[in-house]
Amino acid sequence: MSGERALSWLSIARVAGPCLAMFWCVAPGIAQGSAGNYAFLVGAGFLCDSGVSVPCPAVVKSAQDDSYELSGAGTFATQSKLVTAAGPFTHKSANGNVLETGVWVASELVSFESYGIAPGALMREGQAFGPPPFGPMRSRMFSASLPAGGLAVFRIRLLPIRGISRTATLQVNCALGKVPEEHPAEGIRLAFEGGGVEFGEEASGRTMFLLMRPGANPVREPSATGSETSAAP
Q1: Dihedral through CA 185, CA 187, CA 193, CA 198, nearest 10?
Q2: Distance CA 222, CA 226 (A)
Q3: Sign of torsion, CA 198 207 182 52?
Q4: What angle do CA 109, 111, 117 make, to 5 degrees?
């Protein structure tokens, strides 16, 4: 592996790794009555232990049948529109060849429509989601969590290992709560700014939003020096 390629992978790991791990840190503070702060997962974390046949990563396809595979985690605030989220992605051709791979980073929450809470969603066949090694921390997290359904639209940047970065909108739909008829399918959609191929067919993948209790503020306001709250390359 060349030094340039190794450096690219290190950059991806530094951005995506903390966001994927972040969920386990913020989730113990989740409970009812939030003013609009959420944590969320896309084809990652305990969603991958649900027993569903290929739950991770989330996959979206175009009309030409090429696909994007994404996973990730993050937090956002509905009032300020601030978001911190990232994860890896892979772009594949219709025959399964890998065209590009890299990391996506969220820069803005465009909109969020809540479908309401779904308290029983963290239980499946009488058992809580999540790997046993987390032990007591996992138990506290699930007892305090309030999963919720909704439709979030994020503005993101896709940063491939090679090639130029692109800006897109990522739609994340979690079909829990009072799901509207026009958005019945759980999954993701991807549309690149400036036109081009649109990826609008939710192929597979689980998503979940978790409502955070009052006082929990995982998305920090910008500092006086103007530093960004969102991860950036």
Answers
A1: -60
A2: 6
A3: positive
A4: 105
The string over 129-149, giving b where at least 16 C-beta atoms fall within 10 Å of a residue's C-beta and e elsewhere, is: bbeeeeeeebeebbebbbbbb
**CB burial of residue 49 (10 Å; 0-12, 13-18, 19+):** middle
- Give 19-66 as a DSSP string: HHHHHHHHGGG--S--SSEEEEEES-GGGGGS--SS-SSEEEEETTS-
- pTM of the full structure: 0.75
- Name the more confident of 39 and 145: 39
Q: Measure the CA–CA gap between 192 and 182, rounded to whole angstroms.
A: 22
What number of helices (H) and strands (E) belong to the chain?
Answer: 2, 13
Domain chopping of the chain, boundaries: 3-211
- Tokens at residue 14, please? 């530094």
Q: Look-up: residue for tokens 């993701």?
A: 188
Q: pLDDT tens, 91-105? A: 999 999 999 999 999
Share of the chain above pLDDT 90, in %: 52
